[in-house]
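re the bet — no i am not wrong, look at it urself. input seq straight from the record:
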Amino acid sequence: MTTMRDDFEVKVEFLVARLREDEKAARALKPGKSADVAQLQARVLADVETKRRLLSWMYEPQEKVGDWGDSFWGGVVGRTITSQWMGFRQPVIEELVLSYADHPDFRPQWLPIEDDAHPEPRRP
């Protein structure tokens, strides 16, 4: 019996692969005498590093819960806390994935539904 991976896991793997591609492309640039190319290279590398830090931030609750799972109740509490925190943080990663919507490996079902994409701000 095969188990389906969670769609969010697939999105994370997709994002990690895109970050590797972006970093490789930026490092391949040869700035030479063009300051613009050097600035673009630095900006792309900084962007990749920022997105990687956000990925680490996403999984931070799991790391902080740590060994709570050694006992039954500790495991229940740990999973509950982790699930809630990751649920709050997950939209950040999903927004990062959307920035690669033009990539051939991007799945159309990852696009937000129009009504949910950009809700109208509340007016006072």
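see?? The longest helix spans residues 35-65. told u. also The helical segments are 7-28, 35-65, 72-98, 114-117. so pay up
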